[in-house]
Structure formats: structure tokens, C-alpha cells
Amino acid sequence: MKILLQFPEGLKQKALEYAKRLEKEGNEVFVSASPTYGACDLAIDEAKKIGAEKLVHYGHAEFQHVDFNVEYVFYSIDAPMEILERSLEALTPFNTIGIVTTIQHIHQIEKVKEFYEKAGKKVLIGKPYGFAKHKGQILGCDIGSAASIDSAVDAHVYFGGGMFHPLGALLNTKKPFLVVEPFQNTIEFIDKYRETYRKKSRGKIAAALEANKFGILVSTKNGQYNMGLAKILKERIEKKGLKAAILVSNNVDFGSLDNMLEFDAFVNTACPRISVDDVDRTRKPLLSANELMESLEIREMH
Ligand code: SF4
What we know:
By secondary structure, the protein is of the alpha/beta class. It has 11 helices and 13 strands. The longest helix is centred in the middle third of the chain and has 17 residues, at about 190-210.
């Protein structure tokens, strides 16, 4: 069978090994070298272009149904759990805790739960909104597993690598948020970042009040494409007597945005994390749809 393999950045180092293994089984194998951000970003166009009958996507669970033969290959990583013992001191004031993790460690979540329960905690595991597939799993754009239990817990615990995933959950919850990072061996409450990001958001809204020309970003990635929202936003902007154009790309390239000198501000309809994590990568304000709507409402009041 002719197949295209797609790996997230952290797994690209394994591409040759996997390709050779599948070739030995009699397949004709190709590897996508494009950046890969998640299962929202399937290389279906590339697979179709080379005539592949199947796309094998490593490291992420299914994000949404697509009209192509895609096999998702789970890649779990055993995170060392000794660090949990040390996290107990930080969790002393909290009786009920919620735990979340990423797809790579979801197989360990029951063991993490058991550990905290043995230590006398009541442990809750929430449900994702739908893009994430497992209880307790969070994605950058699906923090339901934390948000759905926010009112019922005294604190949240994220067990896993990196800050990308817990940051999204932090910004959509109110309770103390502890990151237990087994690879860096660090334990840290990250609550202070809520205010940092709130300030950034208020700054963007204020800057957008001065803007007259808006570029609305639409990504062609399967799970990020939202032309419907982009058209609604364009209409809202134009109703205010301002100018807007819809800007279409697969990846958002910040250098290209900076070359679009006519625009005073950009509005993101692609991966929601772009207007949170990447705001400092362009010279112009980079707003979410909600931030744009807020700035338009403020204009109305003046
Ligand atoms: S956070 Fe962004 S990159 Fe990650 S799965 Fe969601 S849409 Fe895709």
C-alpha cells in the first residue's frame, strides 16, 4: 500500500525507523516533512497529491472525522512518577484535587489518581469538551477536563511535560493550578500567569480600538478551518465602517503578516492558541474573535 507518514515535531527523529519498518511489510512509504501541530493538522492534501491510499498520523488521537483513510498511532510515554511524593507538600491545603494530563501520559492517570487517594485526597477527573478523547486529557484547544470540574475542586494538578497544555487550562479555570513536571523535575503553581495573560489581552483590545484595517486569519488545516466565523467577523467589522480582508494560509507565517503593512490588526480564527501564545511574534495586535468583539462593543459605547 502507498502510505504517507506524519509525525509531530518531537517524533520526527523516528521517521526513518518507522518508514523502514513499514517498507519491510511491503508498503511504499513516504514521510511528510511539513510542520505538524496536532491531529487538527492532518497532511491529507500531501497524501492526496502523491496518490497515497492512507495517512498514518503518529502521536495524536483523532481530533475530528475526516473524509480520508487515516490511521492514528498512539505514542505513549511513561513519565517517572517519583515526583508525586514531593508534590504532596504543595497540595497540603487542598482536600479535593482535579488531575489532568496529555495524551502521551493518559495511560498513567489512574495510577496518579490512586497515588493521591492513598495520600488522603479526594481526586476528580473531568471530561473533555470533545476534541480531546479521554477523561482527564487536555489539548491546547480542549481544556474541558479541567474546566468541567473547576467549581468542584480546591486545586488542579497537571502531571506531564511542558507548559503549553497547562497554560490553556489555567486561563480557563479559577482554582490554584499546580504543574508537576516529571521530566524537568519541577513542581510549580502557575497562577501568576493568569494576570500576565489578562493584561496582554486588555492591551490588545485597547490597541485594536485605534485600528481601521483588520486582517482575519483563516487556516486551511482540517481542524482549524473556520471560514464561517471569519465571514461573520468581516461583516461585523465592515458594519462599523472599518475595512477587513480574510487572509488564507496553511501555517500562519508571522514574517508574512509583518509584510502586510496596510493592516492595523489581525484577528485569529485558526488554532485558538495562536492569539494567546504568539502575540509577540507579529508587530501588530493579534486578537482572538472574542477580543475583537469586545473592542467593537467598546467602540459602540463611545
Ligand atoms: S491547540 Fe491548536 S494545534 Fe493543538 S490540537 Fe488544538 S487547534 Fe490543533
